[in-house]
Design brief:
The complex is a heterodimer.
Chain A (H helix, E strand, L loop, with lengths): L4 E11 L9 E6 L5 E6 L3 E6 L8 E4 L5 E6 L3 E6 L3 E6 L5 E6 L4 E6 L5 E6 L3 E6 L5 E6 L13 E6 L5 E6 L3 E6 L5 E6 L16 E6 L5 E7 L12 E7 L4 E6 L7 E6 L6 E7 L2 E8 L4 E7 L6 E4 L5 E8 L7 E11 L1
Antiparallel strand pairs in A: 1-28, 2-3, 3-4, 4-5, 6-7, 7-8, 8-9, 10-11, 11-12, 12-13, 14-15, 15-16, 16-17, 18-19, 19-20, 20-21, 22-23, 23-24, 24-25, 26-27, 27-28
Chain B lengths: L2 H18 L2 H8 L1 H7 L2 H10 L2 E8 L22 E3 L6 E3 L3 H4 L2 H4 E8 L24 H9 L9 E4 L21 E3 L2 E5 L6 E4 L15 H19 L6 H18 L11 H7 L3 H15 L3 E7 L7 H25 L6 E6 L3 E2 L11 E2 L1 E8 L7 E2 L1 E2 L6 E3 L2 E2 H11 L7 E3 L6 E3 L14
Parallel strand pairs in B: 1-9, 1-10, 4-14, 4-17, 5-6, 5-9
Antiparallel strand pairs in B: 2-3, 4-13, 7-8, 10-13, 11-12, 15-16, 18-19
Helix pairs in contact in B: 1-2, 1-4, 2-3, 8-9, 11-12
Classes of the chains: A mainly beta, B alpha/beta.
């Protein structure tokens, strides 16, 4: 295969705060065409760093009461979501809020439409909402995910993404259900049940879930990431899992139960669909794992110096930005932003 | 110092047996003699105490105080959840508990400063007493049952659900004797249910063996019991006092009594609307069984919800389990209140420990020997928020409560003198219910 990720070089690593206080970075956004990177922390702060600078110096501001769970950068502003129920539009230069919208529960994540005109948010009330990025005006709601898991406990709507052409939106929940919606009409056009993502252990926990989704560039495939149902997943995670579906036919095309014992927190495709990348981490396992869908095989895996809770990639799929805590299971994490060069040959 | 308590306990015991709690006692109490005795302050106290019950909602594995009763939103240790106001001015709890937030002023005192000393999965249910050594200390359930149970009752003295796999936190009766051991309702291990590959718990809501084997009628069973009693009496004759034989006979009698009370464990006998109210989860069903048992006169029932040992994914687990706790706890308290049972029933909610302020890199919280607990209903001053932790929840800054104090508070709330001494049969030493010098948390007592 051409454009295989034959090498992966760590080019920059930035600790976003000097002191050793615990900090996890949970979300990342990059301003298109630049190396301006924003990262959201579990302290409610948003961190900014220009990785093009010779000595990148992070700055930060207080943005949310609690976890900054999602970030997107439009051409004009930065939009963040929090577990404090807030969706906030920020002036990127002044770090002042432009607009705040309150949601009923924890907002788990955001996705920016390819044209930048709309934004999708997913909330633990199991509703995905579409917003105008310019005005903050609500456009549409996508309702269809069950509020309870099969074990009758509250479920969560973890993730969403747009197709490359902006026509479709995918959402996925804790119970292993992914739904595909037609953005223009709000109509649900496909439902995938991927039950192996739904974890129930012998102690009565029912978590797990599909933590990340991504459309292939041609829009035909939908990749789902998380981990396999297991027994000790509340301690160290059970087997990492990515499944890929031809969502229009309702057929599973790939099932990768490799990588380690952690959640895949983010999956993304090469811009031309040459490979699929999954990233995550738990305990001492923290990895970037590339897959070749044509060969149905893992291409390479690279140990990351940090757990990866989110990642962003440039337009050419040759620079990657990952965020998460630096550390291991015995120590407190130190929030870090890592820049990688992907050598596609 | 201790002698008066022994004497008082003996006096109560004799009066109980003779006057009130057996079938003959009921007749006696209904007569003139009973009325006369009721004028006795000691007897009034005993009668009042015997009506008291305790339900423990035990959150095994160690629930997080940050995600329940002592949130620290906006602090580095706070986690993702915000806090919400409660019906007690100035006091906020986790957003995951909206139902309890409106009920605290009516039912509940919160202790935010419970110091469990030990941050491990040892059984807090023994009050932090050593689990090794010659003297085997009784658990909370046995101590409560020993004080509150009617001695001649055919009901179980205490019932404990350990309805999740993992550590079951059995409460032994220790030196009080096996007669005071709880009836432990354990889960079984079933087959994996596809697509899951792990065995699933077989949840039980009643002890095993409550029904007679096929072919054995109730009449036959009673008949065999009478024959056994006759043989036992002849066997015991001339052998003086034999505690083991007496205990064995008592056990047979209790089993027979338990079989007669099988319906108490059968929630199908509840109206559908009540079953719907408690909800479909095993935890909700346990709570409904607990209410039925309490209503029938069982002095101590412990329901369990586990597993809160969230070294990883702490927030996902609490996001799932705390709303269930909030729901089941509030439904149980409302139901007890509506049935006029709450004034006689103390509902205690706690864990063996709390969870660390620091969030580890697996989004987990580890073991921490400081936590929060609640006391609702009988003997409690509702709306009291006792104790305080610092702004990051890393330590207690006001009103530290030891496990022994916590137990003393439980005892006092249901009219048990926490200084009462029981005598260890192994060496005859008097053992107080709580350590010498322990005082209850008077601020939370009505």
């Amino acid at each position: 295969m051409a454009d295989a990720p034959n090498d992966l070089k760590l080019t920059k690593q930035v600790l976003v705060q000097k002191d050793k206080a615990a900090l996890d970075l949970l979300s990342v956004a990059r301003v298109a065409g630049t190396e301006q990177v924003f990262a959201g922390g579990n302290t409610g702060k948003i961190y900014h760093v220009d990785l093009a600078a010779p000595e990148p110096t992070p700055t930060h501001w207080d943005a949310h009461i609690s976890f900054v769970s999602g970030l997107v950068a439009t051409s004009k502003c930065l939009i963040s979501s929090g577990s404090d129920h807030q969706l906030v539009w920020w002036d990127r230069e002044t770090h002042q809020p432009i607009r705040k919208v309150e949601q009923p529960k924890w907002i788990r994540g955001l996705a920016l439409a390819p044209d930048g005109g709309t934004l999708a948010s997913v909330c633990d009330d199991m509703v995905c909402r579409l917003w105008e990025t310019e005005t903050g005006k609500p456009v549409r709601e996508f309702r269809g995910h069950e509020g309870l898991t099969p074990f009758l406990l509250v479920s969560k709507l973890y993730t969403c993404c747009f197709s490359r052409d902006g026509k479709y939106l995918a959402t996925a929940d804790q119970s292993g259900h992914a739904l595909v919606w037609e953005v223009a009409t709000g109509k649900q056009v496909a439902a995938i049940h991927a039950p192996f993502f739904y974890t129930h252990d012998t102690n009565g926990h029912t978590y797990g879930g599909i933590r990340t989704v991504a459309f292939s560039p041609d829009g035909n495939l939908l990749a789902l990431g998380g981990n396999l149902a297991g027994d000790t997943s509340n301690i160290s995670g059970s087997k990492s899992m990515i499944q890929v579906y031809d969502w229009q036919k309702g057929l599973q095309t790939h099932d990768f139960r490799i990588g380690g014992n952690f959640f895949y927190e983010r999956v993304c495709f090469h811009h031309a669909g040459k490979w699929l990348l999954g990233a995550g981490g738990a305990g001492s396992e923290q990895k970037l794992v590339f897959f070749d869908l044509e060969k149905n095989a893992m291409l390479r895996e690279t140990k990351s110096p940090i757990l990866v809770f989110d990642m962003a990639m440039n337009e050419a799929s040759d620079v990657l930005y990952t965020v998460g805590p630096l550390g291991d299971q015995r120590h407190l994490g130190r929030g870090s932003i890592v820049q990688w060069k992907i050598v596609n040959v | 110092m201790s002698r008066p308590f022994i004497q008082r306990g003996l006096e109560e015991h004799l009066l109980n047996r003779r006057a009130f709690l057996g079938e003959s006692g009921k007749a006696f109490a209904a007569g003139l003699g009973g009325l006369a005795l009721l004028k006795s302050p000691v007897m009034a106290d005993v009668l009042q105490r015997k009506q008291k019950r305790v339900i423990v909602i035990f959150l095994n594995g160690g629930a997080s105080q940050f995600e329940t009763w002592d949130p620290k939103p906006g602090r580095p240790t706070g986690g993702p959840f915000i806090s919400i106001p409660t019906s007690v001015p100035g006091y906020r709890i986790s957003e995951l508990m909206p139902r309890m937030s409106t009920r605290i002023h009516k039912y509940t005192a919160v202790i935010r400063s419970l110091d469990t000393k030990n941050g491990d999965h040892v059984s807090t249910l023994e009050g932090g007493k050593p689990t090794t050594g010659v003297l085997k200390y009784p658990g909370l359930g046995a101590m409560v049952a020993h004080e509150l149970a009617a001695p001649d009752s055919q009901l179980p003295h205490s019932v404990v659900f350990s309805n999740y796999l993992g550590q079951s936190y059995y409460e032994s009766a220790g030196f009080l004797g096996s007669r005071w051991d709880p009836i432990d309702i354990k889960p079984g291990t079933g087959a994996a249910v596809p697509p899951f590959t792990i065995p699933q718990s077989v949840l039980r809501m009643a002890p095993e063996g409550l029904t007679l084997p096929g072919g054995l009628t109730d009449y036959d069973h009673k008949d065999r019991g009478e024959l056994r009693d006759l043989l036992n009496r002849e066997f015991v004759a001339g052998r003086g006092r034999d505690g083991a034989l007496a205990s064995l006979n008592s056990s047979y009698s209790r089993v027979r009594g338990l079989m007669g009370n099988a319906k108490l464990f059968d929630i199908e006998r509840e109206p559908q609307k009540i079953r719907d109210l408690y909800g479909p989860t095993p935890f909700g069903k346990q709570a409904l069984v607990a209410r039925r048992l309490i209503e029938a006169g069982v002095p101590y029932v412990r329901v369990n919800r586990g597993w809160w040992d969230t070294h990883g994914q702490n927030f996902e687990s609490h996001n799932e389990m705390v709303p269930e706790l909030d729901y089941v706890m509030s439904v149980l308290l409302d139901d007890l209140q509506e049935r006029a049972l709450l004034e006689h029933t103390l509902v205690v909610t706690f864990s063996e420990m709390g969870r660390t302020p620091h969030i580890n890199i697996n989004q987990g919280r580890d073991h921490f020997p400081r936590t929060s607990a609640t006391l609702s209903g009988c003997g409690i001053k509702p709306g009291v928020i006792y104790g305080q932790t610092n702004e990051d929840g890393t330590d207690i800054v006001e009103g530290r409560v030891s496990l022994q104090q916590f137990f003393a508070t439980i005892f006092n709330a249901v009219g048990i003198d926490h200084k009462k001494e029981n005598v260890s049969p192994t060496d005859g030493r008097p053992v107080p219910l709580t350590d010498f010098g322990t005082e209850p948390v008077k601020a939370v007592l009505a």
